[in-house]
Amino acid sequence: MNKKIDANALELMDRLVTVKRVSKTVKGGRTMSFSALVVVGDGNGHVGYGLGKAGETAEAIRKGREDAKKNMIYVDRNENDSIYHRQIGHFGASNVVMKPAPAGTGIIAGGSVRAVLEMAGIKNITTKCIGSRTKHNVVAAVFEGLKGLKTPEQVARLRGKSVEEITS
After folding, report:
1. For the purposes of burial, counting CB atoms within 10 Å of the CB of 62, is it exposed (0-12), middle (13-18) or buried (19 or more)?
2. Cα separation of 90 and 87, whole Å?
3. Cα dihedral across residues 23, 24, 29, 31: positive or negative
4. How is the beta sheet containing 46-54 ordered, strand by strand?
5. Could you tell me whether strands 46-54 and 94-100 are parallel, antiparallel, or unpaired per DSSP bridges?
6. In sequence order, what are the beta bridge partners of 19?
7. H or E segment at 114?
8. pLDDT (tens place) for every residue of the chain, 168 residues total
9. Distance between CA atoms of residues 50 and 63, nearest Å
10. 14, 17, 20: which is closest to 35 by C-alpha?
11. Count of C-beta atoms within a 10 Å radius of residue 140
12. How far apart are CA 47 and CA 17, in angstroms?
């Protein structure tokens, strides 16, 4: 699941989660720059996120897109385009609870969580953010949760059992 992914071989879409104007106070006054949080994915299991900082918004978004391509993961999905089991992602003070949902439910999630799940190709899921709602931390928490997902085959292999024994 955590294999290195060649982002150049994929047809990637990107979604801008947030752009913030940030300032740094220096001896001569304040210097303004921009910070952009970008999520990229192919809608078929591959997804990544990145943070770009630059003096102009377009350059910050480009840097964020490049950073996101370097931090890509693959997410296994079940036949309903949902996740296999309930998962909680933690990052900083943000926690994101993700629950599988039957076909036709759609994505029940907030803006930053929705961007990640749509780019990953997950179509039926229920989520809830608990704790800090900082967009960067929420996106990172979703990624930590998605990294921890296991398929029934992986769980069966770990336990030394068959998939039928585990799913029944």
Report:
1. middle
2. 10
3. negative
4. 13-26, 29-41, 46-54, 72-74
5. unpaired
6. 36
7. helix 111-120
8. 456 677 777 789 999 999 999 999 999 899 999 999 999 999 999 999 999 999 999 999 999 999 999 999 999 999 999 999 999 999 999 999 999 999 999 999 998 999 999 999 999 999 999 999 999 999 999 999 999 999 999 999 999 998 888 877
9. 8
10. 20
11. 22
12. 14
DSSP E strands in the chain: the ranges are 13-26, 29-41, 46-54, 72-74, 87-91, 94-100, 107-108, 125-131
pTM over 0.85: yes
Residues contacting 10, CB < 8 A, separation 6+: 42, 46
Q: How many Å apart are CA 29 and CA 23, to the nearest integer? A: 10
Alpha-carbon gap, residue 17 to 67, rounded angstroms: 14
For the chain, helix (H) and strand (E) counts, in that order, are 5, 8
DSSP 3-state of 31: strand
